[in-house]
Input
Amino acid sequence: MAPEQEAARGWEWRIRVSDVSSKVLAPKEGPICKLLLGVKALIVGLFLKLSNFLKKAWELASSDPRKAVHGMKVGLALTAVSLFYYIRPLYDGVGGNAMWAVMTVVVVFEGIVGATLYKCLNRMLATFLAGALGVGVHLLAKQSGEKFEHLIMGVALFIFASGATFSRFIPSVKSRFEYGATTFVLTFSLVSISDFRVDKLFDLAQQRLSTIIVGTLICILISMFICPIWAGQELYTTITNNMDKLANSLDGCVAEYFSGNEEGTRKGSEKTLLGYKCVLSSKASEESMANFARWEPAHGRFHFRHPWQQYVKVGAEMRSCAYCIEALNGCINSENKAPDRLKKRLSNICLEVSSNSSGVIKELGIVVTTMKKSSSIDFLVKQMKSAVQDLQTDIKSLPSLIIPQPLPETGNPQDKKTEANSTEVPSVMEMIPLLTLTSLLIEIASRIERIVSAVEELADIAQFQPVTDEKTTELKPDYKIAKDQNKEDETLQRV
Amino acid sequence: MAPEQEAARGWEWRIRVSDVSSKVLAPKEGPICKLLLGVKALIVGLFLKLSNFLKKAWELASSDPRKAVHGMKVGLALTAVSLFYYIRPLYDGVGGNAMWAVMTVVVVFEGIVGATLYKCLNRMLATFLAGALGVGVHLLAKQSGEKFEHLIMGVALFIFASGATFSRFIPSVKSRFEYGATTFVLTFSLVSISDFRVDKLFDLAQQRLSTIIVGTLICILISMFICPIWAGQELYTTITNNMDKLANSLDGCVAEYFSGNEEGTRKGSEKTLLGYKCVLSSKASEESMANFARWEPAHGRFHFRHPWQQYVKVGAEMRSCAYCIEALNGCINSENKAPDRLKKRLSNICLEVSSNSSGVIKELGIVVTTMKKSSSIDFLVKQMKSAVQDLQTDIKSLPSLIIPQPLPETGNPQDKKTEANSTEVPSVMEMIPLLTLTSLLIEIASRIERIVSAVEELADIAQFQPVTDEKTTELKPDYKIAKDQNKEDETLQRV
Output
């Protein structure tokens, strides 16, 4: 049986061999070709992706050079720190200490001065606190003998690390000391695991402190004196730009509705019309800028402790106004069109309300931009209110328009009604978009009043001075140009 | 002249002395008392502040225990790492290496699993890349002689640090590799300033790598297996909760308008009415959750690469709907009140539109919650559309209401008009809030259709299965309870 099996296996084996070789031989050139083609496609694909990436990077850098400048500032700070330690080999040469300075620079340097200062101060405070606490706990633990030392250190580490991490969620800590809490945990853990000798303690502390100070100083100097980007200035620019956008959107939407909805015009001015969308989504950035701005020293025309939080309030009121413009934009694009006759009748007064409203917003923009109390704002608000009143009066007079004029001859009353319905009376359905527009315009005007009071509060807290007439006209164009140049491109990105 | 001056000075000096002492002596007891009082006030103040702070912390911890749990997880991870190095003194004992593991834990550990994974993977990738590149540049620089070494290293550091920092602003890098870019800069700078010997290079690399892996592993394990908070689950919960809130707000607003505006009822259900405000401000958190969720492995009912970005789209459509509810809420609170007769006439149909609309949103909520395609959504949408049609028809029938019924006797036409105006015809002004409400309801219904198509797209991409009837009813209550428990408290904070 065995030889038979052997023979059978041999046979089988021989068959399999020929089988395999035939299978392998036939498509042998296929895979290699495929592989080569695949590699070629991969290389071309990678090359295309890379060139695409570089193109995008170049576009970004040219549209907002400040981002490229920030990159170079970080490079400069790091090179400065490392050269400082190359040239002056302090203490134990280029080693552990230089590392801390470099780490400080990498972790602390931010694009915005306020953010850098916030991190620097948090880091210094937290390092000092955690260092002192850590050393204290360490000494305490050492006195309780070898056995309990690790236990005590472990428990202390757990308690302090948990507590500090949890404290980051408490709103008052979160807005000012979140980074400090992280640094506290880091420093405390490092001190608690390091096995230092008490006699070398002060040397160590002094070295660590000096390196952190070197790193921090270089960061602060470069961040503040080479093309600085101030959070306060950014917040201020965002608010004033958004005011312009809001005003232009409002004007544009209403004008577009009454001018007849030509596709061409709409597309041309799409950017202006949709400017309010920036206001809708600016909450997070405004709040973080206000948080950073509080760490910044006096700069430009802002003193230390300028009431930045009030700008956030102004921004919130603007957003509430932008919601209404969103709804307005929606109802303008709805399918129901009001009859032209009715549109014409209300067109002038609606345009007046919208231009008066946007005039108020623009004036508020000037108040915030020039930081001078406006002499004309009360007048403009009064004008806006009276336009709203006129609009309401005009609408009140509408029933006489809807009710058919009584015919001179007295015919069959039934006939009269039919005729009136078919020719004279616009259905309420047709009137709805127009009436919604007016209703939203009235609501927008009342929300603009809330922006006015927020800005007036800002003017009081920040002690804006009353404006003298010739100054406003002189200042306005300059500020406008500077503002627009700064923000125009970023806005494009955001929209 | 000199002695005279001397004398004069002496005299002056004496006078000043007496002057000063008299000034100091008179209120001497005052300042001490004041000081003591001040110190007392300070201590009491500090104590009050501290107790207030602790109270707030306690409230936060009890309202959202997950935050306290996160704190403890960080404590646990740090203690674990430090004990690991205490117990097994690897390589050169507890020293430089343990430091890197601790640092990794502190920097990488986040409350959300996706964020931890994102940071871990970024850190490992960036460390590896920067390390290899740094060593390469170092070796190259060493070959060009002592003189040029520092120069080459400095230039390389500047170029790579600038480039990597700038790359953080490029959108595609920002959303996935921002943290990696920071780590790259850090590692590259550390390698370029360290003065290593080539023969020890691989030892060093191996040690550094092993410590980072230990730190990273501990982070990932603790983050994923002890009370994990998944970004995907959070995003999913936010979206489904927001759908409920949107539906309730819409229902509540319309119901409140037609039920008559009693102050008591309004205040009681204020929370429900203003639920839509959560939707207005959830953009940033939804986007960051979606970014983190893509790093997460399969968890719960979500597989790896679940289409998280589609949830963001659904969220955006919901926000566009919330803007309209904002405007609706504004126009409901406006001063013009529609006459009761007119309100009553439209009340039923408006309530029907709103309840149908909110029904659609609630059904969408169930679709997303159960991850099953709904069998009734098409029917519900049809119902909503037909209710909108009915509303439009009802409004179209309104002119007959406004136009006075022709009087039976034919009197003076002038008289008829006056009478009609004063008694029968509600002025358009009075009708405006009601008409705006209907118009916004119609707009909201059309925006809800956009949410429907976004959810349907999600159901297609994520391959939701059709629902079987008994399953829905079984699953619904469970999910609801779990969802509500998770998010209810956080919502309270946010509102």
Observations:
- Chain B has 20 helices and two strands.
- Chain B has three domains: 2-62, 66-225, 232-401+427-494.
